[in-house]
Amino acid sequence: MSDLALPAWLIDEPRTLEQVYSQGSNADIRLRVETRGLSGEPIGKLNAVNAYRLHEATRVLGGNPNPPAKVENVVVLFAGRYAPDESGALFGIMFDRGYTTDDDPNANLDYTGHPREGCAIFLDPIRTYRRESPDFERETRFTVIHEMGHIFNLQHTLEPSYLVSSRKQAPFGNEYFDFTRAQMTTLSACSTSDNVRPGGAPFEDVGPFAAGDRATNRKRPPPDLALRLYLPLRPFWPFEPVELDIELAGVGLAGQSVMVPNRLDPGFENFRIWIEDPLGERRFYRSPRRYCAFPARRRIAVGRPFRRDVSLFLDRAGFTFRRAGPHRVWAEFEVRAGAWLRSNVIEASVRPAEDRALYARARAHLSGPKARRLLYHRELISGPTARALERFAAEHPRWEGVGGVHYGLGRALVASGIERGGRAAKARVERGREHLQRAAQRENLGITQRIHASELIEMAR
Length: 461
Hints:
Helix content: 25-40%
CATH architecture of the largest domain: 3-Layer(aba) Sandwich
CATH class of the largest domain: Alpha Beta
Shape: globular
CATH topology of the largest domain: Collagenase (Catalytic Domain)
């Protein structure tokens, strides 16, 4: 079998998927597997594929009418590997989410109008980690069912099931080749709910199925862990670069430690940030980043907390905070299968639009797509945009939000300069260091941002 040969079970046992999803949905999902498209080589055998090519293949093979007509066919694609995955270890992905992300910037309605129409399996990394034929067959079977679960809007979990992320060491045992009761409840609503039916709601918009495996503590979290959130205590406009500080700390005697999933990021389903707006409506923060990685672990020791910051002012639909007034923010982290650790609740005070020059100038400089990308992703894609932000920050040194602008500019400039190298890049790094130094002098800069700023200042010397 060549490295990119298709798994034999797809040819010999094509009814497997029909049976799995019929049983898992109490016969609500009735698949008819068509294998005629499996006669050729996997797409992207010689080159990695990007999301655009996967979308195009889905449109051709699926043959579904353009939105808003219903989806009748879903597509499972087989390719070599996924170009945006720098690790080269991604086994599969449900790329058709209904919105743009870092790895899939295709915003055309032809690609976003029918969410959850297709998924892709990457045979090169599977063969790398599953060299023996039985392991390869078992892993591909699990991965196909896993990614198809995402097509029906199932989310990751740590409980043994098809929706656990694959591990590097070996394929899962038989206890993972099943759906949980909550997942079966979701699948059983496919014929009646747009939150489940392919082509309906965007991925992760799970409506009444939001609790399921994720938001209810059926098991108690370990008492020796504490999850804490911090936010600068000042009102801010929706377009300001707001950073949320997250701390996971050990609680107990010195020397004790706890192992947790290395997934303290809203790009994973195991970590959720909740937002309650002034009207009492609750929703998840929808990160523009999506991760589907091996379940690495992190050790949390007493006296040595893990800290990180999350840019909170943008989500996948635009600005995170869309109403003025006080918002309540908290987080939940699945530290063990079915055991969710809840954080403290903090308040974010969002300022309304104002009829004054500073508001108009701040909105004009911070709201543009290139400025938002620089401040959120810390990615410098436009020199003039950076210069305009620098001028704005210099003209308003007393504005309370200027520290966030300096911080975003500093990180973007330093990263861009280090990546490029050369004389011009050195000047860019030095500009970045100056912005980070100014940011660190601001009272409203968060704990983690101060740590990152200090580290980058020293590294960039």
